[in-house]
Design a protein that fits this description.
GO molecular function, one term: hydrolase activity
Organism: Pseudomonas bijieensis
CATH topology: Rossmann fold
CATH class: Alpha Beta
Number of domains: 1
Keywords: Hydrolase
Strand content: 15-25%
Largest sheet: 8 strands, mixed
Pfam family, one: Abhydrolase_1
Order of helices and strands: EEEHEHEHEHHHHEHEHH
Strand order of the largest sheet: 1-2-4-3-5-6-7-8
Mean pLDDT: 95
Structural class: alpha/beta
Number of strands: 8
CATH superfamily: Alpha/Beta hydrolase fold, catalytic domain
Helix content: 40-55%
InterPro entries: AB_hydrolase_1 (IPR000073), AB_hydrolase_fold (IPR029058), AB_hydrolase_sf (IPR050266)
Length: 267
């Protein structure tokens, strides 16, 4: 367990393995622990760094407004702190948004990008959008994190054989700091860099579950806006693909990273 400080906030990260640096960024209400099925596999091939985003896991939870740009600045500072040079960057859900932000602001820091069940913007445009967000916002404030975790577990892992994943999800969710969780949720709403995607020159893989919260079509649409991107759809998966389809996920990611590394070496 290691920590580094950025703008008065102690951020927790873990390092494994050797080789080209590969950084994994979790989603809202999550932590480094949700990469448990990736760490042993990926660290066999790469210098793997997993991070707890500000307000999450074992990182500090400052009482302030959070922003995707702020999370991205923390990530940039960590890459600088560890003197990593360009990294392979993987972001899941809110982590994907943080990665998109870094990719448009500081493209030189990124060797390749993998976005998992995420989007380059969360804009509230229609009355229905407003109602959906208001519902989520209200429920999050009214319900305990334990209750939210149970509901999420049931939605993400509905199969009878996924009992352990459901229970673990509820346990982990309950450990969140409610104020930091809500501040992170608020950071997502209204954020977006979709109009800047043409600036993301690095090879990009978008991994998307066939039963994610948002349709595959949404990912197909933004993949077209990226100069060097392709989409991989993982069947029989929901929003937590790295946990519900770890073998498929790891294999898809490793094939992409290997291809990217061999192309870079050829140049």
């Amino acid at each position: 367990m290691a920590y580094f400080e950025h703008e008065g906030c102690n951020l927790h990260y873990e390092e494994y393995g050797h080789g080209t640096p590969l950084v994994l960024i979790h989603g809202l209400g999550s932590s480094t622990r949700d990469w448990e099925k990736q760490i042993p596999v990926l660290s066999a091939h790469y210098h793997l760094i997993v991070v707890d985003v500000r307000g999450h896991g074992r990182s500090d939870k400052p009482r302030e407004r959070y922003s995707i740009k702020g999370f991205s600045a923390d990530l940039s500072a960590l890459i600088e702190h560890l003197d990593l040079g360009p990294v392979h960057l993987v972001g899941w859900s809110m982590g994907g948004m943080i990665c998109f932000q870094l990719a448009v602001d500081e493209p030189g820091r990124i060797k390749s990008l993998c976005i998992v069940n995420s989007a380059p913007e969360v804009k509230v445009r229609t009355p229905d959008d407003c109602w959906q967000w208001f519902k989520r916002w209200s429920l999050m404030r009214l319900l305990s994190l334990k209750t939210i975790g149970k509901a999420l577990g049931a939605k993400l892992f509905p199969k009878p054989e996924q009992t352990e994943l459901r229970l673990e999800m509820a346990r982990r969710w309950a450990k969140n700091d409610k104020r930091a969780y809500l501040a992170s949720f608020d950071a997502i709403v209204g954020w977006g860099v979709q109009e800047r995607l043409s600036q993301v020159a690095c090879p990009t893989l978008v991994i998307c579950a066939d039963h994610d919260y948002t349709p595959v079509a949404l990912k197909e649409a933004y993949v077209k806006l990226l100069p060097d991107a392709r989409l991989a759809v993982i069947a029989d998966s929901r929003h937590a693909t790295p946990l519900d389809q770890p073998e498929r996920f790891n294999q898809t990611l490793l094939e992409f990273l290997t291809a990217t590394d061999s192309t870079t070496q050829d140049h």
